């Protein structure tokens, strides 16, 4: 028998290599998991963990995409392998816009931890992961940021540096798919008195604004959601299409808002396949059940990424073609500027957990409004003319990276100005809304007084929705822009037709 001898120095080197390799692997555990999910990761730990993992793997990199109000870094991890960049599926995952929704962050840290196990994803996709958009709120388990702003209601005006950071990342990468990860809190007193709580481990919502390309909405609803549901069921987690509304006896139940002011619809309106994830929160609004909450969200993300990467050609083609329609938007195309939810022929059978016995039960929700239908439409102009001296409007365009020009010729097109005859107070989607009655008149203007915003760009639908005075989602409906609508005066933004 032949004996192989190793020098003592070689043996020590091998032992050191093995020990450091094992230690490195063991250290790739999220901070919360190391504490058995008894405490979520702090913002400092999020940075430390993501940098450590990103520095270890050559297919990972990271960048600081912005800072919070208190100056904390907001980090994005990119997972990518060399490939045909133009044909790759691009996916953006981001969590914890709301600081008191801890599993949104924790699930993404587990995705970063495990990304090496899913190399097949990276054969066809580039993935950006922002685990924590709101570090200031997260560190004190507070929903809002340090400016007391709800970041998920700040994707039009972009007052907060955190929401601007995630929008900038979108602009720079133009992902085909975005996933905004949250938690919902079902244990409100009104539901307890009603007799039952929603108890879905994960709810997932698709775009509901009907200006988003119908094929995108249909594909997400009919192809993607069933795959997530099946995967979660196999892993022992419950699922539902995302529902909002008060207890069934007090108001409408519907599939979320149509507003473009959140992290789902703000990207969807540019014909992105956007999703919102809503994992269940704990009864204490913090750490109760954090491990199960985190794993449920994690498995729902894995299910989505599995399906998307297995069908990447279809998703890329669908989104690219839909965006081309926006970029080539023509004057006269219709955009729905007022819409609402309506009933269909079937009530909703809603599974609940009894607040009295803890047993599963089902209620029939007759006041179910799943259908979104147009109330008012408007034709696209060729362009909008925005007053050159209105710094607030110009900042909005700049923040959203909207293309506009300062020098242009008005001789070949007619300019029209809206005059506000009266303003009606109304309610839509359960929120106060103003509905001005307007008259459109042809006017002569001096080009040096305006900048021109062409409609034929990716922001086409977005521009119509924020600039039309009768839009339920317009800038005039938002705090700080009330000056745009004054009864008896002209609306300052003009249409070029």
What does this structure look like?
- This protein has 14 helices and 20 strands.
- With 497 residues, the protein is α/β, with parallel strands linked by helices.
- The chain has an 8-stranded mixed beta sheet, sandwiched between helices. A 5-stranded antiparallel beta sheet has the order 18-17-20-16-19, covered by helices on one side.
- The longest helix is centred in the middle third of the chain and has 21 residues, at 214-234.
- The N and C termini lie far apart (93 Å).
What is the count of structural domains? Answer: 3
Low-confidence stretches: 1-26
Mean pLDDT: 93
Count of extended strands? 20
- The helix content is 25-40%
Across the major sheet, the strand order is 1-2-4-3-5-10-7-8
CATH architecture of the largest domain: 3-Layer(aba) Sandwich
Please write out the topology.
Elements: H1 8-27, H2 31-34, H3 43-56, E1 60-67, E2 73-79, E3 89-95, H4 102-114, H5 119-124, E4 125-130, H6 135-139, H7 161-173, E5 177-184, H8 189-194, E6 196-197, E7 202-205, H9 214-234, E8 239-241, E9 253-254, H10 265-268, E10 273-280, H11 290-310, H12 312-327, E11 334-342, E12 348-354, E13 360-365, E14 368-369, E15 371-379, E16 383-387, H13 391-399, E17 415-428, E18 431-443, E19 450-454, H14 460-467, E20 494-496
Parallel strand pairs: 3-4, 3-5, 5-10, 7-8, 9-14
Antiparallel strand pairs: 1-2, 2-4, 6-12, 7-10, 11-15, 12-13, 16-19, 16-20, 17-18, 17-20
